[in-house]
Write a structure and sequence with these properties.
By secondary structure, the chain is mainly alpha-helical. Helices cover 60% and strands 5% of the residues. The relative contact order is 0.19.
Length: 272
């Protein structure tokens, strides 16, 4: 059956194909390589050790509830604009020490203590929550589910075709089980992460949502510097990165602030 080195080629085809299925529906601010390079220099010169702001679990839960309530109260017009019916943010606090936050199901957002300890203000916490809710606003969860199905089908077809081309017997009774295994891997790869455009779209939508909730977007922007410091070697986005590199994200956030401040209705424009 398909060898591991063959799977690398299958994975590359899947990543390229799935990235083409996971674009943005809203118009994203344009950014240049020069702007990214300038931000990269700033990130690279930052302090190696970030300060931490430890609080009790009860304080973290209360902060997240306040943020969720404030954002939810400001979200209805943006939800209608994005054509999303459900507009409630369900917050889950995790006491795990990893620096992480993620969106799941319909409106669920989970934030880990490891990330919260690096955030100084409620604005920064709101940026994290709003970003994850931005994935819901842009219906990225549904797109990930579709990508999982596409990944399974593509992996099965490519694995079976590659095996036959390498001399395997298409009537081999072990063929269905082997192909099924590759389909499972393909499904996992398809649902693994969002595309770069989707991540930037979630950031953009979060800026509009936070502005509607009267959060200070410039103060909130520290969160992207924090995350960039967590991964300094990513000075530029590469082909298979699923998140924009830290400097790219910082520049995009600054552009989003300008766009939001100029917007009379605080609603993002759709892509032409």
């Amino acid at each position: 059956m398909t060898r591991m080195e063959d799977w690398r080629g299958i994975a590359a085809v899947l990543l390229i194909t799935l990235s083409g299925c996971s674009g943005a529906d809203f118009a994203l601010p344009s950014i240049s390589d020069a702007e990214i390079n300038q931000a990269s220099l700033a990130v690279g010169s930052g302090a190696a050790d970030l300060p931490t702001f430890p609080r009790s679990d009860a304080e973290y839960r209360e902060m997240l509830r306040n943020v969720a309530d404030r954002l939810t109260a400001s979200a209805p017009a943006l939800c209608r604009h994005a054509k999303v019916e459900s507009c409630t943010i369900d917050i889950t606090y995790s006491d795990e020490s990893s620096v992480n936050a993620y969106a799941s199901d319909r409106n669920s957002v989970t934030v880990h203590r490891g990330l919260l300890e690096l955030l100084q203000s409620e604005e920064e916490v709101a940026a994290v929550v709003a970003h994850e809710f931005g994935h819901h606003l842009a219906q990225h969860i549904e797109e990930k589910q579709r990508n999982a199905a596409i990944g399974a089908i593509l992996a099965g077809v490519l694995a079976a075709g590659g095996a036959v081309a390498a001399g395997a017997d298409a009537n081999d009774p072990n063929m269905p089980d082997a192909v099924g295994t590759w389909m499972g891997v393909g499904a996992q790869l398809g649902a693994l992460s969002y595309s770069k455009e989707q991540e930037r779209e979630a950031d953009l939508l979060s800026a509009y949502l936070m502005a509607r909730a009267d959060y200070d977007l410039r103060r909130a922007g520290r969160v992207w510097w924090v995350l960039a410091q967590q991964d300094k070697e990513k000075v530029k986005a590469s082909l298979f990165d699923t998140h924009p590199a830290g400097p790219e994200r910082i520049v995009a956030w600054e552009k989003a602030i300008v766009e939001v401040e100029k917007s009379p209705d605080k609603l993002p424009p759709w892509k032409p």
